[in-house]
Amino acid sequence: MKLLAKIQALEIRSHNLLNQDGEDRPLIGRWAQFLAGRSSNDLCSSPELKGLLRGGVPREYRQRVWTWLVRARTRSARERHPQRYQQLCEKSDASPCPASRQIQLDLHRTLTTNQHFSSPSSPALQQLRRVLLAFSWQNPAIGYCQGLNRLAALALLVLQSEEEAFWCLVAVVENILPPDYYTKQLLASQADQRVLKDFLSEKLPRLSAHLQLHSVDVSLVCFNWFLVVFVESLPSDLLLRLWDAFLYEGSKVVFRYALALFKYKEEDILKIQDGVEIHQYLRFFTKTITDGRRLTSIAFSDMNPFPGRLLRNRRVLHLQRLQAELQDLEDQQEEFLTENLTEILTENRRDDKELDVSEDEL
User: Fold this and answer.
1) Which ranges form a coiled coil (predicted)?
2) pTM (two decimals)
3) CB-CB contact of 262 with 204 (8 Å)
């Protein structure tokens, strides 16, 4: 009950995703100096920019910086198809979309505590609908997957542009995250959960052993963290800071923060000696994080070294294992069906033979 009360109190500060009172004034000064005299086209990848992004982008500069980050990741596609979003919107208007029913259902489940999405008549909901429909035509292999609504909603809030939000969704799904993250079987998403467990056992061995002792499967909680990149799982200021780095550095940031969250609350979790209670705690504890600087320091300092090559190799390993397991399961199902069909045919032939004998006796 104490945890739930703390969460309810903290959600007051997260009511509006764009509210960031009390920002670090020196950080604002560093960003102002960095951006002075630069246009969006002048922003180039650099260690200085990387460091600034890890510290977080001040509210007044975030739209500009995110726009640059998204355009940097989608430049070649946009140059090939400069009117892509408008064309896809026209297609959505002209043709029924297979994903439209699920999109419509999920619209009203999106960021329900945020003032921009809380009303059924909100213009933001209609913008979100158009972005999701356009993406479903952009990537028919995915169409729509639950969770994409939250990614697109966050992009709309920050970028204040349907087209830029659409390209942000494209950047996340088609550029930053691995293929098959949002396809029907969610194979890459499942593989990432196994990778996370590997890192958890290596970076936080005491906690990993404690969770195993009490039969706690962290993927029951963490799967959603990864699928929606922490939207609605973190206080708004921490969420936006995570995304600042995520859009620049990529999906490694999600692992860093996931591990940092466990490190931040490690001692509290170790005190809980019941598996059900641990699981209940893990469902809500991310919203009780109050020290953003400490969390960021854990993510980018305490979790080092964190080489990208290791992450890529682990992903390949676990994806291959998942694919092999899936193939084994399909083979077993096929074998089962074949055996049952053979039994049915044999039984039918036996019945037919018995029927023939009966007719001869007549």
Assistant:
1) 312-339
2) 0.86
3) yes
Q: Could you give the count of Cα atoms lying within 13 Å of 26 in the half-sphere of its Cβ? A: 1
- Tokens at 261, concatenated: 């969250």
Q: Name the residue among 197, 176, 171, 322 with its Cα closest to residue 252.
A: 176
Q: Which has the closest alpha carbon to 221: 212, 213, 230?
A: 230
Rounded (5°) CA angle 343-348-351? 125
Does residue 280 have a pLDDT over 70? yes
CA gap 241, 224 in Å, rounded: 19
Q: Where are the alpha helices (DSSP H) in the chain?
A: 2-11, 25-35, 47-55, 59-80, 84-94, 100-107, 123-138, 148-159, 162-170, 187-203, 205-213, 219-227, 236-249, 252-264, 266-271, 275-284, 292-297, 308-361
Q: Look up residue 165 and give its two tokens.
A: 């939000």
**pLDDT digit string, tens, across residues 210-240:** 999 999 999 999 999 999 999 999 999 999 9
C-beta pairs of 46-49 under 8 Å, 24+ apart in sequence:
49/248
d(CA 125, CA 115) in angstroms, rounded, equals: 11
